[in-house]
Amino acid sequence: MQWHTLAPNDVAKEAHTDLAKGLTTEEAKKRLKRFGYNELKEAKKQSALIVFLNQFRDFMVLVLLAATIISGFLGEYVDAIAIIVIVIMNAFLGFFQERRAEKSLEALKQLSAPQATVLRDGEWMKIHSQELVVGDVIKFTSGDRIGADVRLIDAKGLEIEESALTGESVPTAKLATPLANENTAIGDLHNMAFMGTLVTRGSGVGVVIATGMKTAMGQIANLLQEAETVTTPLQRKLEQLGKILIIVALLLTVLVVIVGVIQGHELYEMFLAGVSLAVAAIPEGLPAIVTIALALGVQRMIKKNAIVRKLPAVETLGCASVICSDKTGTMTENMMTVTNIWASGRMWTVSGTGLELKGEFYENERPINIKKEAVLQQLLTFSVLCNSSQIKEKEHRRYIDGDPTEGALLVAAAKAGLTKAQLESEFTVEQEFPFDSERKMMTVIVKDKSGRRWIITKGAPDVLLEISGHIWWNGRTQPMTADWRKTVQHVIHAMAGKALRTIAVAYRPLTAKEPIPSEKEAEKGLTLMGIQGMIDPPRPEVKKAVQQCKEAGIKTVMITGDHLLTAKAIAKQLGILPPKGKIMDGPTLSRLSVDELEEVVDDIYVFARVSPEHKLKIVKALQRRGHVVAMTGDGVNDAPAIKAADIGVAMGKSGTDVAKEAASLVLLDDNFATIQSAIHEGRNIYENIRKFIRYLLASNVGEILVMLFAMLLALPLPLVPIQILWVNLVTDGLPAMALGLDRAEENVMRRRPRHPKEGVFSRGLGWKIVSRGVIIGIVTLAAFMTVYERSGNNLAYAQTVAFATLVMAQLIHVFDCRCERSIFDRNPLGNMYLVWAVLLSLLLVLVVIYYPPLQRVFHTVSVELLDWILIVGLAALPTFLFAGSFLTRKSRTNML
Ligand code: ATP
């Protein structure tokens, strides 16, 4: 089909759709069923069986299996079968952990799936791009990624960057008119837009003509390689650490075996014990548990409206030392209401809040009759004509379809009885140059019924003042003298000083014959008409969030396109600007180099009247000062700064696709406070990872040392191989995972941010692991020796007691790991997952100690009740020793 040659109506006919109403939901469903989802096929994933079998790929597990089979042949059936069963159980544990991790990551991917704005049943709505079908009418604006191949039926200043398809990175201007037949190369199809390409400017509407693998992208992509899994810095560090730990564990095991053999143990016996020890001591579950902790943390963040798009961001969040945040919508409600209007030297105030269309106009606090105020009416009329938003209603709820700033202007005009529908019947818009944050203005060219034409521009008053040669005074134009300029500036300052966001309107008449000027030509030589000031109240929760960030050693910086005084007033209300804090404006920022900015950046808390490209400079200067920077943004031009920041943050509601793609964190509610809770969660996740590393490694050190000490002291084996394996299975699995689900300690947001280069074992973790491991080894051996001697060398009994002590010591230690300081700092029942995990582990140990059929398998005997006092006492001893030493240290420091 030569879609590009057809007129829009024929496109609709061929695609069986209605340009005014789109498809019906029912028809769309039918088409979706018939033609499938609008997605590119991905390479197949690993099957569950492969993931399961991969669990056996570990070298030591294979050695263990081989050793077991040999022992089976030597007649030790029970041992052999039991060991194999444990190995399989271990594989299942690994398998479920890995699957769980993968599923969570998959769910995350789904959440950040792209969306499209589609016309269905006559209403514009947002759906997942996946659900687009041929015939759908979709619209897009700058920053959107096109969801399917479309034939354009409307294009307003539309430019699309198609490098994904053509390799050409300069955006192509698009239009909606039919083309001649011969233009068939993708780069020449100027009235079509293709899946995966990017709108860099303007806006457009198009009819979907191909989806999924039938799109131009689908045809070249064939089979997309599965996106590579991203690992976080910590995961990579742990991978390296894992390798070192394997070597250390193996060396120690070999040492155990050699010493054992020298002391007279049989080589065969020592070999199996050694291999079991190696399997137990190697923390093979660590990577999967880290992934689960990361993924579960990420899910907790989703509940708080923060979506992590890139897993490494979870860790970086904990290091953030500066948050640079947009003001409008992120720190404020983005619910604007015009309260003040100035024109011709007169100031009116307007009553009414929000989207209420009723309100009174006052001058000098006295109500006025708006019908008699031609000046005011003219200003309001122009601000409605130069406006691409609309007031709409759905299910009895009024909302603004478009920009809230423009919405406020519409509402103010409606209060004077001027509606967009009515004005659009009187005027036609010949051209529109959309708003962008760079120019800080927008322009339309309109014509009324009698053929009179105007250029109307609205935008930041200080910018409009620069390009206005005249001022409108009581219906007449006067040259803009220095005095007039001062008067206008005075008004701007007065409004901005009250935290009002200001918008000015200016115009220039055009003769009937003048051709439509370019954007540059249109936006000069204007006549300034008046200024409207609107309030945008701060979000109530932001002040507290800013305060909490401050306590956590994180500086908040406000970045806004608004006027300096508006920004200052709001920054003060929110507690962002300290008494000696400085403000910098865009023009000053432009003049400074990154080096110069670096010198002063630490003192600046507010950047006002900035353009998006300034943000990159700010990020760079802060990073050079050694900061870890979070930067928010929503538009196309924000993307470079979002990418360059350590944590790029995009707005979920108002953000463009480009900003979201560049970001590592997306705020579903566009709210500053959400960044603060994400940082809180990020710190917590990192702490949880440290908790179970501490737990797992201390346990493993304990396991190895109890064997090593026994061999050195020429004692019999304190644990048989199968007991070692059982300890590993019971203690490594559930309790470690439960630690990953722990809540943050109270003081987590009262510490300074973590240094990004900080090692895993910093802040005393390495010492805690080794010292605790040594003591667990010692108490286990002590229990073994005491009972061995007392019972007249009853080896099976002594081994059972050692087994019980080792497990108990680990299950008590797991509660220690919840706190950086002492176990007594936190309620042990604070993490019920952990309590249940520990109880279950305990049960699994009691079963093998007391259930006769399992006693045979595990070489255990029933332990007398009184001996549990010895077991629990010794197992709990390390906790009291450490807590005691902590408390004495604390009281000593208190005394000092
Ligand atoms: P922040 O960075 O805090 O979100 P902002 O994004 O609102 O601020 P911009 O949108 O760049 O900043 O707006 C800068 C200025 O441009 C505003 O102060 C206002 O004067 C003007 N402005 C904003 N929106 C429009 C619009 N739709 N049409 C014309 N002018 C606008």
Shape assignment: elongated
Stated plainly, the CATH topology of the largest domain is called Calcium-transporting ATPase, transmembrane domain
The CATH class label of the largest domain is: Mainly Alpha
Biggest sheet descriptor? 11 strands, mixed
Give Rg in angstroms. Answer: 35 Å
Write out the CATH superfamily name of the largest domain: Calcium-transporting ATPase, transmembrane domain
According to DSSP, the number of beta strands is 28
Number of helices: 32
How many domains would you count in the coordinates?
A: 5
Class from helix and strand fractions: alpha+beta
- Using the 3D structure, state the CATH architecture of the largest domain: Up-down Bundle
Return the average pLDDT rounded to an integer: 87
Q: Low-confidence stretches at least 5 residues in length (pLDDT < 50)?
A: 223-228, 890-896
Determine the fraction of residues in helical runs and give it as a percent range. Answer: 40-55%
Portion in strands: 15-25%
Entry summary:
Helix content is 48%, strand content 18%. It is of the alpha+beta class. Belongs to the cation transport ATPase (P-type) (TC 3.A.3) family. Type IIA subfamily.
